Amino acid sequence: MSAVWRASRAAVKRRRVQTIVIGLVVLCSTTTILLALSVLNAASSPFDSAFARQRGAHVVATFDASKTLDTHLARTVRRPGVQAAAGPFGQAVIEIPEEWLWMSAGPLTVVGRADPAGPVDRVDLLTGRWATAPGEIVVNSPVGGNPSRLLGTKLDVPGVPPLTVVGFATSMSRSAGAWVSPEQMTALHPSGFQMLYRFTSASTDGQIRADLATVTAGQPADSLTDAQSYLTLKQAFSASADSYIPFMTMFGVLGLLVSALIVGNVVSGAVVSGYRHIGVLKALGFTPNQVVAVYLAMISAPAVVGCVLGTALGTLLEHPILDVAFSGIETGTATIATSPWVPVACLLAMPTLVATAALIPALRAHRLSAAEAISAGSAPRTGRGLRVQRKLSGTRLPRSVSLGLGQPFTRPGRAMMTISAVVLGVTTVTLTTGLASSMVAAGKAGKHSGVALVDVQVGTSARGRHVPKLDDSRIEARLRSLPGADRVTARALTKVHLAGTTNTVFVNFYRGDAPAEAEQIVKGRWPSGPGEVAGGPSFLKQHGLAVGDRTTMHLNGRQTDVTVVGEVMLGNAQAMDSDWRTAAELAPDTSAVDYTVQLAPHADAQAYVRGIEEADPGLYPSLRSDSPDAATTTVVGFSSVFTLLLTTVAALGVFNTVLLNTRERRRDLAMLKSIGMTPRQVVVMTVTSVAGLGAVGGLIGIPLGIVAHRLLVDHAGVLTFPESMKDVWHAPHLAALTLAGVAIAVLGALIPARSAARLTIAEVLHNE
Q: What is the pTM of this model?
C-alpha cells in the first residue's frame, strides 16, 4: 500500500488542475446537500421529539357543557383506539377588553387543571409556579424571551374575578391560552369541557377522524363543538420550511449529478491519457487492483478535502438558513436545532459517491495488460473524428472551425459527459432565472410603483400613546379630505374562535377602498359582502379549508357562518381577511386599528404626513418603504449563489475536458502549427470543439429547467403563484438562455485553449 500511496501522491502532484477541480466540485456539492438535509431534518424531527416528550394530544376536543356531562366524557377514555386520555377539564372563554401582556384584545381560552402533569399534554412550566388557588392564572407563553418579569401582572375582565399571573407555561398541543385551578374554573362558569386524546393510530387525517368518531359515539350529535388535530400544529410548524425543501433538494440533486459526471470525466481522462503510465506501473509489478487503487486514491484525496471544507461551510450557513426557514415558529418547546447526523452523513456519503463515480472508468485500467497499455500510448483514436473532419472540410467553414467541430467525435464518451455537465449548468441557470422572475413578480404584487403609501396607526393607551380625539368614521373622513389622498382603506384586527380549533385566529376586517391584498387573489375573488372570507395557502391548509368551504367564527358569545370565497397569493399563516360587514355581525362596535392611504401621483407625501399629525395627535402616520420582500430576497439570493457555484462547476468540467484533449493532441497541434496554423486559429479550433457541445447542452437544458421551475412554483407551499407569474418565458429570454450553454463551454475552454496556442513545436518534439 505504501507503493500505491506514493504513486497516487505523485499523480496528484502531476495533475494539480484536475485535483483542484475535483476539490471545488465536491466542496460546492457537499455544501448544497448538507443545507438541503438540514432543512429536511428540521422540518419534522424537532416537533416530533418535543411532541413525544410532552405526550402531546393527537386531538384536543371541546364539548358543550349544556349538552353533555363530564361523567359521560370520562367514560370515553376506555373506547377502542384510545391510547391515553386526560380530562374532562372545565373550559371557559373570557374576553380581554384591551391589549394585555403580548396579546391583543379578544377571546382567551382558559382551562381548569389541577397540575401541569398527566397522561396527555404535559404542560411545560417555563417560569413561576402552577395556579393552585383562587385568583391565580398561568398564561401560555411563546417560547423565547424572559416572561419572568411579567409575573404578578393583573387581569381585570368585566364579570370575572381579578386574576394574577403566577406562572408562564407552554403546551405542545396549544390546548389553552391560560390555565387556572379547577376551583377557579367553577367561578368562571365554564361553558364547555375539554378532552385530550392520544390514539394508537394517528398518522393521517383519516385515522384521526375515525378515532374521534369512535370516542364521540353515543354523545349528542351537536355536543362536540371543536376538535383540533395535532397535524394542524405540525403543518404550522413546518409550513415555511416545507416551501424551502423542494427548492434546496433540487439544487442538491443537481450538485450531486454534476459531481458524479465531472469526477467520472476526470478519472476517465486520466486513464485514457495515462495508458503508458499504467503500462509502466504494471511492468514494475503493480497488480491490476493496485493500479485501480492508485486512481481511486488520486481522486479520493481532493474529494475528502473538498468534503471536509464543504461540510464546514455548510455548517456555517446552516443556522442562518434555518432561522429564515423557521422564522416566527412558536409551537410549545419544539426548538430548531441542528442534528449531528447530517454533517456525519455528508462526510461519509460524499467521498463514497466520488469513489463510486471514479471506480467505473478506473476499472478500464484494471483490464489493460502492460504490453497493450505501453504500446497504446496516449494518442487518441482519430478514425471517427477524422472522417467527420474530412466531411466538414468540404463546407465553406474556416478550416480551424471544421477541425474543431470534428474533435468531439474522437472521444464520444467524453463528449457526452461534457454535454451532460453543460445540460445541468443550463438547467440550473434556467431554473434560477425563472424562479427569480416569479419571486420578483410576487414581491411586486399589490405594490403601486411610483405611488406613495402612508400607514396610519391609531394610538392606544396600552402602548403609551395618545388616544385619537376623532372617532373611527371621522378619522376616515379626515384622511380622505386631506390634499393628495386618492384611496383610503381602514382595517380592524380581531381575534376570533374558528370552528375546529381551540386556538384563536386573527381576522382582518377591511372597509373603504379595496386593500392591496385584493390584487393578490389567485383563486376565487376578494370578500365583498357579509359572511365572506379569504385566506392564504398556509392558513387554509392548516385549517383544512379551500375555496367554497364554510366554517363558523365565534366572538363575544356571537357566531356567524362564513364562506371562503378566495385564496390570497401569500397571506398571513395565522390570519384571514374579511369584509367589514362581517365584523358588524360579530362585534358591532369594531373600530379600525390602522389605515392605509394611497396618495395621488406626484402628491407631496411629507405634507400629507404633517397634515395627519396636525389633524389629531392620536394618529401616527409613516411612509411605507418600498423595500424588497424578505422571502424574495432570500430565495433569489440563495438560488443565485448556488447557480454561480453549479455553473462554475459545469465550466470546470468543460475546462477539464479541453485540458485533457489538448494534452492528448499535443503532437497534432505541433503538426498543425508546423504547416502554418496560427495561435489564434488554435484558440478558435479548441473553443469550437466544445462550443457545439455547449449549444446542444443548452437546447436540452432549457426545457429541463422550465420543467424544474414549474415543479418548484407549483409546490411552494406558503405561496400560491397565479399563472401569470409562472409563465415567465419569452422569446428574447429563451434566446439568451440558448447561449448560456455556449457561454459555459467557452468560459471553460478559454484558458486551456490559450495554453495550447502558446505551445511551441520544439517543446512538443523535445517531449516526444
A: 0.64
